[in-house]
Amino acid sequence: MNSLEAMACARESEHCMQPAEAFSLIGDETRVKILEALWNADETPLRFSALYDRVPIDTSPQFNYHLDRLTGQFVRKTDAGYELRTAGENVVRAIVAGSFTAHPRLEPFETGDECTRCGEVLTASYEDEQLAVTCRSCGRTHGEYAFPPGGLLDRSRNEVLDAFNQRVRHLHCLAKDGVCPECSGRMRTELVREGGCCLDTDLRVEYVCEQCRHSLCSTVGIALLDQSSLVAFYRDHGIDVGTVPYWQLNWCVSDDSTTVRSTDPWRLDMSIPLGDEVLEFTLDGKLSVIESQRRESCPG
Ligand SMILES: [Zn+2]
Ligand SMILES: [Zn+2]
After folding, report:
1. Nearest listed ligand to the Cα of residue 120
2. For 38, 71, 121, 228, which has the most beta carbons within 10 A of its beta carbon?
3. What is the DSSP string of 188-254?
4. pTM listed for this prediction
5. CATH of 3-97, one of 1.10.10.10, 1.20.120.80, 3.10.180.10, 3.40.50.300
6. 208: CA distance to ligand 2 center in Å?
7. What is the Å distance from ligand 2's center to 74 Cα?
């Protein structure tokens, strides 16, 4: 059994279902409406009649047929009625996130934040479900990452940027900890010394999931954003680093603070200046902190 088949073989299900069979089951509008009705119900399980009332369909046998097809893999039938299984929830969640249906556009707009290199105002743009923060003046990219279209709904531009900032931080820290943000499979960390991706760096981190092949690229800096010593360092300088857009931290969008000490084994030094102090990290090839220290910055 490959990993996709293993995924389709829901833990609670009585038999293993092939992915094609699972997808074909939800390739029908009525079935999607049934899943959505269960998702939108204030309380589940829902009795048959209550569920039937919530789905626009002409005849009861037709409804019965579609519900029957969903039951087992996507819907659970109990004595108290019908409720969504995790697989059913995931289908509705993907619809809500907009990946299947919506193609909202967002015209490029100025973020109000300054470029870490030249100081001009950064531009945010959205295309193909990717949000990018870029300097149109000097060309420095400040990261381009997936942002599901559902994240644009009911949000102002500033709120979109806030949500994007939080999403990138959390997904990257999760990936660094070895957990795939898409499927929770094992994620491999690799350091790559060449440019050419969405980052303006020569050294980048590549995370690849061994199970679903989801990949993310990152600067070394972003991987440090959840380090307690870093959070404390900023707090001592009066800054809640958790709320600062990562693209406003030069060490998160450039190589400027990173020094490669050796490649076999990997040893990296990071030095993060703030006010009259510097926070220094030594990292291994998996970006685990081997050492960290704070010192006063050298005068001049
Ligand atoms: Zn610039
Ligand atoms: Zn994965």
Report:
1. 1
2. 38
3. EEEEEE---SSBS-SEEEEEEETTT--EEEE-TGGGGTT-HHHHHHHHHTT--GGGS-GGG-HHHHS
4. 0.77
5. 1.10.10.10
6. 8
7. 21
